[in-house]
């Protein structure tokens, strides 16, 4: 394995954390936050080298760009992480067995966390601080577009680690070569989990090629069902919020499921969306109900392809359903199991929906826009898992840990 | 995908569980236990067809064989599962947010659990009962050697499901063709987790080829460190138990790490092992200490290959270390992170060891033979995870579940 020496070093470095206290960890992180500010000119200068290689018209340009204000936000985020309680060492379970063995389950770091991401240099600080807080060494593979920025950031981090007498191998930035990605995907025995952060294409690539355990984050094909009894006023505000608050995020609404008895309310329900420029892709019944009311240039007949699409833009599919079971069937078929909502004043229907829908976050009478670590009170978030193993939905500090069983005996043997 | 129709059916069937109560689930399982007994002649007859195709000298023959007594044990195990509390619906976390949203984390089934295993027909009953109890549909891929047995078992299970009006697709047995395995490994979006049960070769194959999330179970390269202060009498019993209780299991001892100051005690420490016929592979210092005491035909100089080997037989590596840190380094290098132990009367050393060793189960002054779901009080076990994601160590019912976030609002939108 070409990068085996690097992986071996990182894995060895991960053992450092068994002798670092939560306070020492926070102290390092505070110094990293300070160093991010102190090194602003250097970081911006290196970031500019990356920017110079990219057209400002490229949609990635803005994500790549660091500014003084953004570095201040980054420093604040790291400071915030230091204020969160450490999950490490938590006794999850403890019991004295009849044979006198004392058994407990203790929260421990995962070990080595790999993260593959694209041209967002802020992720480098972000992933480092969350991994370091949770006692994990990290192996970072950033996009080649951000090479200068990431090298500069890791240099700043390493200088702080060195000052604290901690090996820099706890935060390893891989070179931009593609072979490094391939090695990371295959680093069985060295990497405990790999988290891809970025486009669906990146996530698919990682899932297809990884030999190490992966947590998938990302894609949200999000529905909201407007039930027969739903409140029109609340529903109008919620749908508008879920669709337009930020269209590029995974919790944004993609499909409105409308109870057929509420077709007459549909024009009012989506009226604010017209003003925001939302294009609707409506099934036949919804199209019919809207055609005299919604701007013609924003209203299109829905094709099959519009269902099950994550738009990430000012577009919304509208589907009319006969009843709640039909809505549930549609969601089961097209949902990416991220965030799903029901708007209803019928308590029984709400319970059926919350129970039946298989998604990371299921909502009643509120906006799917709340699917977010900070909103859920997790303090920080490394991603939103769309799989069911290990972590589901927003992943905070606890989701960057594992546990081990500790058994204390006094000579017991098994019969 | 060739088996897509089957996977689609199983996934759809997994939704059945949202309308089954814990009592209904237990009632089905009790009937399956009864049916296993009632159909003993049929099951033994079909099992005999498999046995007829295999040489009785084949080490797999005994694992493949069903008997009346084994079917009684299987029925008892299923009955036992019905007595365990259901983890489903457990409220893991609940909170009222400042904006009035009520947020909770609820335990739910994983969805569809795939299990690939070898010629052990008991696994078919075992996996079905644990998955059904936890509200999961299962896709079973058994070894071709057990084809008749598995078909018979699934027929018995399906008859019970039918009697209860439950779709048989909640328990899907794939055909024995290799293509079925390949499809299962790639059933992204249909299978929530895949658990290989069997040899290291099978586990490696699954890890290398799976596109769906995998939980690795199995391999245990197990060490016990006999410290400077360890009690000789207790240590002798513990080491003998850990090595000889059952040599073919993953928690069996593979390497004794001996503090150099205890070399003079080594002959007494391993004396009972000689009687059990344990072959020792000793490093130079240990070999020297043993040569006048241990039977010559059972004592060999250790080669590098003997460290980091899971023997699964009456063989034991012996390595002399200068101190605790050296023992920790050896474990970090060779352990498979399954079960590791320290024998010591030094409380400080014990704490250092328990804290520093990265393994699913870490023991002080007792036998690694305790790494087992039943011993840990989990009631039942689907395997012992050697990875750190999702589940570590013995996996019981809870480890066959995920969770979802439920958020109840009253018109809240995100700012």
Q: How are the SSEs ordered, and which strands pair?
A:
Two copies of one chain form a homodimer.
Chain A: H1 4-14, H2 22-38, H3 40-52, H4 61-64, H5 68-83, E1 91-96, E2 102-109, E3 112-117, H6 122-133, E4 137-141, H7 147-163, E5 171-173, H8 178-185, E6 193-197, H9 200-209, E7 222-226, H10 232-244, E8 253-259, H11 266-276, E9 279-282, H12 284-290, E10 299-301, E11 315-321, H13 324-334, E12 339-343, H14 347-356, E13 361-366, E14 383-385, E15 393-395, E16 401-408
Helix pairs in contact in A: 2-5, 2-7, 3-7, 5-6, 10-11
GO molecular function (chains A, B): glutamate-5-semialdehyde dehydrogenase activity; NADP binding
Function (chains A, B): Catalyzes the NADPH-dependent reduction of L-glutamate 5-phosphate into L-glutamate 5-semialdehyde and phosphate. The product spontaneously undergoes cyclization to form 1-pyrroline-5-carboxylate.
GO cellular component, one term (chains A, B): cytoplasm
Give a structural overview.
2 copies of one chain form a homodimer. With 415 residues, chain A is of the alpha/beta class. Chain A has 2 domains: 4-216 and 390-408, 3-Layer(aba) Sandwich (Aldehyde Dehydrogenase, Chain A, domain 1), CATH 3.40.605; 222-370, Aldehyde Dehydrogenase, Chain A, domain 2 (3-Layer(aba) Sandwich), CATH 3.40.309. Helices cover 39% and strands 20% of the residues of chain A. The first copy, chain A, has 14 helices and 16 strands. Chain A has helices spanning 4-14, 22-38, 40-52, 61-64, 68-83, 122-133, 147-163, 178-185, 200-209, 232-244, 266-276, 284-290, 324-334, 347-356, and strands spanning 91-96, 102-109, 112-117, 137-141, 171-173, 193-197, 222-226, 253-259, 279-282, 299-301, 315-321, 339-343, 361-366, 383-385, 393-395, 401-408. A 7-stranded parallel sheet of chain A has the order 10-9-11-8-7-12-13, with helices on both faces. In chain A, strands 5-4-3-6 form a 4-stranded parallel sheet, with helices on both faces. In chain A, helix 2 packs antiparallel against helix 5 and helix 5 runs parallel beside helix 6 (122-133). Chain A is globular, with a radius of gyration of 24 Å. In chain A, 51% of the residues are buried. The mean pLDDT of chain A is 95. The interface between A and B is large, with 68 and 68 residues. Chains A, B: Belongs to the gamma-glutamyl phosphate reductase family. Chains A, B: This is Gamma-glutamyl phosphate reductase. Chains A, B: InterPro entries: Ald_DH/histidinol_DH, Ald_DH_C, Ald_DH_N, G-glutamylP_reductase_CS, Glu-5-SA_DH, GPR_dom. Chains A, B: It is an enzyme of class 1 (oxidoreductase). Chains A, B: It catalyses: L-glutamate 5-semialdehyde + phosphate + NADP(+) = L-glutamyl 5-phosphate + NADPH + H(+).
